[in-house]
Design brief:
heterodimer; A: about 475 residues; alpha/beta; FAD/NAD(P)-binding domain; Enolase-like, domain 1; 3 domains; 7-stranded mixed β-sheet; 5-stranded parallel β-sheet; 14 helices; B: about 475 residues; globular; binds flavin-adenine dinucleotide
Amino acid sequence: MGEISTKVLVLGGGPGGYVAAIRAGQCHLDTVLVEGTRVGGTCLNVGCIPSKALIHAAEAYDHARRQEKTLPFGLKVQKPSIDFAKTIAWKDGIVARLNTGVAGLLKRNHVNILRGHGVMLDGKTCRVETDTGPETIRAEHVILATGSVPTPLPSLPFGSNVISSTEALSLAKVPETLAVVGAGYIGLELGTAFAKLGAKVTVVEATDRILPLYDAELTRPVARHLATLGVEVLTKAKAVGKSKKGDALVVEVGGGKREIYAQTILVAVGRKPLTEGWGLEQIDLTMSGPFIAIDERCATSMRNVWAIGDVTGEPMLAHRAMAQGEMVADIIAGERRVFDKVAIPAVCFTDPEIVSVGLTPAAARAAGHQIQTGVFPFQASGRAMTLAAEDGFVRVTARADNHLILGIQAVGAGVSELSAAFGLALEMGARLEDIGGTIHAHPTLGEAFQEASFKTLGEALHI
Amino acid sequence: MSYDLIVIGTGPGGYVCAIRAAQLGLKTAVVEKRATHGGTCLNVGCIPSKALLHASELFEESGKSFAKMGIGVSTPKLDLAAMQAFKDTGVDGNVKGVEFLLKKNKIDAFRGTGRIFEPGKVEVKGEDGKTQTLETKNIVIATGSDVAKLRGITIDEKRVVSSTGALALDKVPGQLLVVGAGIIGLELGSVWRRLGAKVTVVEFLDRIVPGIDTDVAKNFQRLLQRQGIAFKLSSKVTGVDASGDKLKATIEPAAGGAAETIEADIVLVAVGRVPYTEGLGLKEAGVAMDDRGHVAVDAHLQTNVKGIYAIGDVIAGPMLAHKAEDEGVAAAETIAGKSGHVNYDVIPNVVYTYPEVASVGKTEEELKQAGVAYNVGKFPFTANGRAKVNMTTDGFVKILADAKTDRVLGVHILGPDAGNMIAEAAVAMEFGASSEDIARTCHAHPTLTEAVKEAALAVEKRAIHM
Ligand SMILES: Cc1cc2nc3c(=O)[nH]c(=O)nc-3n(C[C@H](O)[C@H](O)[C@H](O)COP(=O)(O)OP(=O)(O)OC[C@H]3O[C@@H](n4cnc5c(N)ncnc54)[C@H](O)[C@@H]3O)c2cc1C
Ligand SMILES: Cc1cc2nc3c(=O)[nH]c(=O)nc-3n(C[C@H](O)[C@H](O)[C@H](O)COP(=O)(O)OP(=O)(O)OC[C@H]3O[C@@H](n4cnc5c(N)ncnc54)[C@H](O)[C@@H]3O)c2cc1C
């Protein structure tokens, strides 16, 4: 049995863990990264990247299908076909390249990658079962980055045709019928992709609307588009199990029961932190609900034990994990830093896309602010017209007294790429006048941000 | 009838100026000689070109990248008439929008050619030849620009065309010769290449897209060449013989030397635009011009004649719609007694080819010339996850930051969706942000904008994904 001594040990090689390790390497800290499966974590292997690949392919296929009949661009294509096995192989190719890429980056920064399941024996020691036998690592600093796993539903345990997002990203073929339980962003992103690929999709949501974390105004264009795609959405509906024959999902809705025939049932009711099976009980850290409790430096209740990413709480997003990872490595290297992000953008890669940065109008009011808010619709955007993608808007919320921008939301085709401008504006403490006074290139979607700021000031130029 | 403000020309400069003035309570009128509002930009510029660029990109994409994703499609057939109709719908929607906005803001619109009689008086001559005279306290000249002509080449808008004709071709040319490797020539060259034309671009200088960062321009040229566009740099077109079935263009090395002839079905003259002041009566009104034919203005956009202002393409500076708009807002505010202001250091610039090129602030050459010490942070899209899944990995983000203060001095993006990404850089530069400010801002994953953050990290040599 081998023993390794190191300055930094990172447990888990997802976006939180691998970024922390790379940054630690850049800071010349002796670093070991322990990963049980493949580096890149949920995000690269079974999350952000493969889902966006599938979404991209589905959109291309859908586009090709609609080209002749309903799209205005003057292109005629015969009925397109899809070879789904090839689509999945293409996606796997991208994932593999990114895995290799991340492993290469880690090596280049002199990070020692140890493949195997790690178990913490105490706050400084980790035992890893590698292919060549167990190893024990002793470290001055431990960064816990074990991430999260899909939450199961007791009435619909994963197995056979009840799948999580992980399996949904590697199906052998497009199911004819798909029931999606949970209309959060993961369920809707994948449900939309499969609908575009030809599945008959039904979405079952317990609350009264899709994407319950976002407000109704923001989600309306998505709901509209789901209807166009023929996706049936059942709200205030509860999935209670499979039918006796096993060929349908049983749903309680409107006071009655309904059976939804489904070859495949995707349960996407959220993710939970991975806090079991790796010795957390041995180190007995303070918890915050199901998550490991951290302070603004990502320090846990034990000295020199840090935690980052999905295991530490909401929002469970890759870029939050990465930003925390970067920061913790800096702190261990001696920099004085705290996690003081004003804005962590949230993006739904639905159709159309949704972005939310900072507070929504309702949240701002609830926080006791007197606010002003304004919306600029893409119908009035020249760029959106040239893209034939006019559904959606940008909405800005600011304090009424000094016009400090508190939040920015957008829904529309391609708005994910505006999220950085929104985030930066909040980080800079921008006021409405600042954004109004920044020249935005014409014709771009970003002009809608400037116009929404004008609108909030009561001075919109293009509506 | 007497007005507080009359704006001559309703391009993006003029109509925005009028709307802002009306919002500020000025009694405002506009004069426009074209049948529709919106000027060059909406009628024969930004909007129709972007519509064709988008549609032609889809056309090319379905033939190119779909198979890799397992999508089988027949080679798409082009219905050019339908594509042109799509473009026209986009234009129509936009110009109607402006008409609605003018009405909504209670701005009087006069159809006809405006002439400045004397300060405070504008004469409008309608199509029927009838004239009327309007009185006003202030005048804004927003008459825009016109296509620059080349000696020896007559534009007939059928076979020898300007951008206006090139936007309205009813057939894909077999061979298209583009004179001028500026933004307009490359955008329209790209459209017709995607739709099947063999495109050659002739440029007088030894580089394409003058004004854009040289490093970006070089890489951009390489990518365009890979797509099949041929370039003849350091060359000039001295004449086009239109007597035969095929056009015959004579091309000479810029430095002089033996001429050669290139055949083409269409020649697109895209050597720039010149300020348009014909028939405005500026001389009579005593308005001074600069030596390049622009209306001369001071820092408040006022001409040498009190009460007469000018904005947009007709004055000096980048000929861009958003620059015209911002000047429109500033002029209206100044006239209304507020302090309008344009920050000429932060005007973004976009080329809507594939990949796109977008930049804001200084280029490396400009910084070198000014003797400013700077650091460079660069990040390629090949290392960006979103670009990978979209199969659009060409290009990079480059950030130039002051070596002493780390203040961002310029951002240059060659890559997919660069036009939407440049907004972040513009906001950052308006705030005098440092590269560290961008680097420490949480960028959503997976988006292309992560490449901007990584380039900012790279300024201090600490990019994560490279
Ligand atoms: C379908 C889907 C789509 C998503 N889309 C997006 C999106 O578009 N944008 C976004 O920001 N986020 C998205 N997410 C969320 C994102 O994937 C997570 O927020 C992110 O991966 C969290 O990173 P992490 O480093 O905390 O953990 P993870 O990525 O979960 O990584 C944890 C790693 O630790 C390893 N590990 C755990 N325990 C051990 C152990 N004991 N020993 C060794 N190794 C261990 C695991 O194998 C794993 O590789 C998506 C998630 C899913 C499921
Ligand atoms: C093909 C092409 C593509 C372009 N793409 C872009 C782009 O993507 N982004 C960008 O920012 N810019 C682009 N431009 C440049 C942009 O169109 C101009 O910068 C912009 O239109 C300038 O606005 P303006 O208001 O100054 O003038 P114009 O838009 O030129 O408007 C002037 C108006 O004044 C009217 N007029 C002139 N004289 C008189 C008179 N005496 N009486 C009454 N009316 C008069 C004209 O009819 C015209 O309508 C493009 C230009 C072209 C040609």
